[in-house]
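Bug #2210: token dump truncated for Phasin?
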Amino acid sequence: MAYKPDDFFGFSAFDPSRMAQEFRDAAHLGAEQSREAYSRLRDATTDATKTVEDTFHSAQSGSFTLGMTAVDAMRSSADLSIAHMQALMGVRSVSELVELQSTFVRRQAELTVENVRELQEATRKVAEEVTKPGREAAERAMAGFKAA
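Reproduced locally. Full output below:
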């Protein structure tokens, strides 16, 4: 079958008004998708900013708590040492000195163990509080991915 030049180069199927409408539809769809993407990006940025602020606040209050726990531990150790020094001032014999010293060392060891436990517990709580905003944000993000 032979083709005529008019068939090959002809624009008989070309409708300019239909093309303009399809172009408008594509532009409208692109603009709508851009608005949706911007909205999601804005929401994600707001959520990330809030997460960082919450994490910073938790870290700040947690470091204060840890500092106060450490200060309390040093204070109790210093109080024990001062009481020991005062007791040493009244020593009358070597056996009394050895007894006071061994009691002091035992009490100091017990106090150190107690202080370490308190510091570990405070550190665990602070770590939970500091990671909580990030963990919640990650869970929200994963839920968003699962929903999409």
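Output looks complete on our side. The mean pLDDT is 86. Marking as cannot-reproduce; reopen if the truncation happens again.
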